[in-house]
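Below: protein 1.
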Amino acid sequence: MGRRAVGLARQAVRRASNVTLLLYALALGAGIGLASADYATRGGYPFGGVVVGAWTAWPRAGSVGADPYARAVNARRGEIPLAIGEGMLLTAAQDDAGRTLDATCTYTIAGITPPARAWTVTVAGRGTRVPGQTTLREGFTSTEILREPDGHFAVTLSPVVQAGNWLPMPRPSGPVRLALRLYDTPVAASAGTLDRSALPAITRTGCAS
């Protein structure tokens, strides 16, 4: 009886160990899955971009054939993306020199846009907005922006008040992202043919010491 009891006890311990390992593996897998999904959908679209200088065009973000990650990003943001027939979204997280856009720095966004019935340029900070921060201007539209006689424009993205088309930084520090939305544009179906000179240049002019 003593040996039998010992044997049963060992079997019970092995079963308990196997169940514990199984539960641990399931919990670890769920945690890694949730963490990876959160990381993949926290920022911009992870796949399907067409790089044009400092900008990245997302021609399929609002199409029927959008990948699952793009759909998850749209759902998380609560946004309705532009379909191919409606326009195109371009984003920028770096300047023309390849440096990450920093909320402590000042940038000039200057040039022209591809042909479009209308367009908007907006800025957003990555992550949660700073609590208690006053909401300032977050973008410009093509109908309100000040232009040069030749149609070119210049927007100053800066944490400090600037003359002209001033776009304030959305947070005191950290990375930021620009979004250029073109509405009713013929380039929506041919993003791969976009020329760098057809998009505004993003130039860093200084940073807080």
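Below: protein 2.
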Amino acid sequence: MMQRHSAPDLDATDRRILSILQRDARIPNTELADEIGLTPAPTLRRVRRLEEEGVIHRYVALLDPKLVNRDLMVMVRVTLDKQTKQGFEDFADKMRARPEVLECYLCLGDTDYLLKVCVADLDAYQNFLVEVLAAIPGVRNTDSTIIVKQEKYTTSLPLE
């Protein structure tokens, strides 16, 4: 589950730093400082503070799925038999352990969980569906939607 953190006070410079880092997390500190109009030392202090406060919690490399043989993206809606705390925790633990599950969301409404699954092909997805999802006690129903084309993809949060 997502945990709520108290939001730190972010001024315009912090927001600018975050926007730039979302675009390019490998930007050298000197270039970042130039872009925001500060010298390198205070820029680095601000970045470190944003990391310490949890605003920035990690840096990642974004890969092209096709170039690493993960061509099939599937959104899966999962319904559990019973909506209990233990059932939610058990299902979420199992999904966190699966490398093909990129995202897992607990939902309100008719769907209990929404998964984003990335696999090599339809055979790999069928195996995941039958051997993993259907094998989990308490999973009542799954509904899969195969992604044909990605029209927009971003990891950048709007900060305006």
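The radius of gyration is 20 Å.
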